């Protein structure tokens, strides 16, 4: 045997079996453990895929973690790192197992690997249960993502199947029992058919003729440009203007002395995440906005937290001057934002968080009317007191978060979470309805919403999406059909060659 072959055997056996000696006999249930390694590797790849496509909503997990622990940690990045380590380990272990098979080495999996695989399954199980029970709104994102990735996942699956077929055929030829051969043949044939015919079930809005591509969705700054500045501060909204946003999205609350101001968090301790309220008022635990006057709010720093926690890992992109500006941000009033919007002809859309919707709606509407902003730039989203708002400010554009209610009340502006929307957007657009989807941060998701025909998207990453000139991919249906049939045929021919060569 060559030195190269010897080294390969030793390394493979050393990693997989943690033994440098050549065992005389395969261990008990070696084949079962090989199957376990294969299944856990596949499971870890699927879990890593879920983590990557939910990266768009990483802020949700970090915010939930803060609400529980009152301490800001980038929990989602911790999850990504642990998942990447687990997936790399499982895939590497599977590769060494395949090398063992190719070299006709016994598959004696070391007990330490068995323990790691067990804990890997536990980790993934807890992750899946967490998504199902603690983050249920994220579940629709998984099938939605397949509209963007399924064609390419199928190509990858065909490639993997083709490469692995050599090992399958070797196992088939080595099997002594007739039933073993039948089981291997039936299983492999069923798996191959499923992968080869997968494209028949693929549905994607990007499978269209290139000349049918809708116009690029407009951008709405989610709390401004929170990757470039502290969220819901004047610096954040000013930075979003440079992105070409058509609207500012924000959150409004009303202070004790009836001044509407901008702040997203609205439960107990609502100021702790984005201000230094704990330092300014160490003995207080404010539960809602009416606990503080506007003067109290103005005494808080609303920017230092951004530099300390770096929630989007983007602080390093700021200049020293920008960091200093961020450090000195304060809680802005709604009037300040309206003046900025009026100056740049940018629309404003907001949620109103209030324990007293009636009075707070009155104060908010009065503030807007007294600001002198063009009423058509105000996109009114809060569903409570909508009748009062329509009578008092008929020029406001009424925006709905429920399609049925919108149609019932004769509206034509819809604002929904991207993962909840399951209707044909182009059909709504054709009937004169404007559709905004939130929150869209990742390029793949923006591309998908573009193909689907969204009018606009609310985003944290306006500085990135503004430079996207075309969706990641657009393909004519007939072109895709020709490609996947060609890939399937080539795969069948290659696998036939492997089978004949090993007979």
Helix content: 40-55%
Give the overall shape. elongated
Query: Mean pLDDT score, rounded?
Result: 92
Distance between the terminal alpha carbons, to the nearest Å? 23 Å
CATH topology of the largest domain: TIM Barrel
Q: What count of structural domains? A: 3
Structural class: alpha/beta
CATH secondary-structure class of the largest domain: Alpha Beta
Low-confidence sequence ranges: 1-5
The second-level CATH architecture of the largest domain is Alpha-Beta Barrel
Describe this structure in words.
The protein has 503 residues and is of the alpha/beta class. It folds into three domains: 1-139, no CATH class; 142-211 and 479-503; 218-465, TIM Barrel (Alpha-Beta Barrel), CATH 3.20.20. The protein has 20 helices and nine strands. Strands 1, 2, 3, 4, 5, 6, 7, 8 and 9 form a nine-stranded mixed beta sheet that branches. β1, α8 (234-241) and β2 form a beta-alpha-beta unit.
Question: In short, what is this structure?
Answer:
This protein has 503 residues and is of the alpha/beta class.
Task: Record keyword descriptors for this entry.
TIM Barrel; 9 strands; alpha/beta; 503 residues; 54% helix; nine-stranded mixed sheet
Walk me through the topology.
Blueprint: H1 3-17, H2 30-53, H3 58-69, H4 75-102, H5 111-134, H6 141-174, H7 178-196, E1 218-222, H8 234-241, E2 247-254, E3 260-262, H9 277-280, H10 294-298, H11 304-309, H12 320-327, H13 334-344, E4 347-352, H14 357-371, E5 378-380, H15 386-392, E6 397-398, H16 403-408, E7 413-417, H17 425-430, E8 434-438, H18 443-452, E9 456-459, H19 462-465, H20 477-502
Parallel strand pairs: 1-2, 1-9, 2-4, 4-5, 5-6, 7-8, 8-9
Antiparallel strand pairs: 2-3
Helix pairs in contact: 1-4, 2-4, 2-5, 6-7, 6-20, 8-13, 13-14
